[in-house]
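Data deposition worksheet. Section B asks for the primary sequence of the deposited chain exactly as it was used as input, without tags or linkers unless they were present during the calculation. Section C holds the resulting structure in token form. Section D is free text for depositor observations; keep each observation to a single sentence. Incomplete worksheets are returned to the depositor.
Section A, Depositor: J.P.
Section B:
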Amino acid sequence: MATRTTITTTAEPESGEGAQEMMEVDKRIESEESGDDEGKKQAVCIVTDISQQSLREEQNGENLTSDSEIPVDMETISLDPEAEDVDLNHFRIGKIEGFEVLKKVKTLCLRQNLIKCIENLEQLQTLKELDLYDNQICAIENLEALTGLEILDISFNILRHIDGLDQLIQLKKLFLVNNKINKIENLSNLQQLQMLELGSNRIRAIQNIDTLTNLDSLFLGKNKITKLQNLDALTNLTVLSIQSNRLTKIEGLQNLVNLRELYLSHNGIEVIEGLENNNKLTMLDIAANRIKKIENITHLTELQEFWMNDNFIECWSDLDELKGAKKLETVYLERNPLQKDPQYRRKIMLALPSVRQIDATFVRF
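Section C:
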């Protein structure tokens, strides 16, 4: 899953007039608190001045913010007709237009702009990747001509429905994170799809993905899903993430024999079960659930990471379930009753000698 990071840095005065003024204000206020009348008078004047100055700066800041939201005129942006990778991240583009000059473009990045409508891309027949992350798009439309598209990202927009993708039969990765989608639908033609990211939406059920048999990674975290179901056809799935949903039971995974990473944290699961056919698991995350006992996982001998923090595990003998996992390197058990034991780390090391990390701390030898 691709990681998206935005860093904003705000510089503060460390020296000079600004810093000196702030130091003086601090001293005067301190004098006011100590009952110094002269200090009080001076403090009131200075605080009033600073308040007025802050108000002016705030008003100016508001004007600046308002100005920054005015879409840029595309005629001011120079596009190289020979370019294969075009990155127009945070350019304040309000409308997609003028891109027909890009005869060789393969990757077009329009993230963090002011785009409301997907349009005027029909002539970009060479396009393989389209990034519309963080705009104001409310519908997936006008993409029918881009039949060679392999990666599409419309995350952090205001989509309510999945639609308009029927012709994108070469699509391999689809990112629709953080929208307002309440149903998985209209994906049946995307049989080449390998990664589907639908985290942070309003989805209540896993459905309509039976034809996505080439799917390798499925991300459904932070939705409203209550049941693990309709996954039988996804036999090639290696990564499944359904964190922060409303699951109460581990089930419906019997056909996912190639699953290697399973993320089920922050749900309401009470029992570890239903993993009998998932022998290839290397990562099992069941943190922050309601589990009282580690059980039914002795067959998971390929495990490398086991996350069970924030549950109700209290019996040290439960760790015997992990002794067959000779490659186990990372174990998270913090914030379970077990952690109250003064010998907590030592007992884990003795029970699981292959472990190199306990919780967030590496084991010292």
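Section D:
The domain at 70-195 is CATH 3.80.10.10 (Leucine-rich repeat, LRR (right-handed beta-alpha superhelix)).
The chain has a mean pLDDT of 86.
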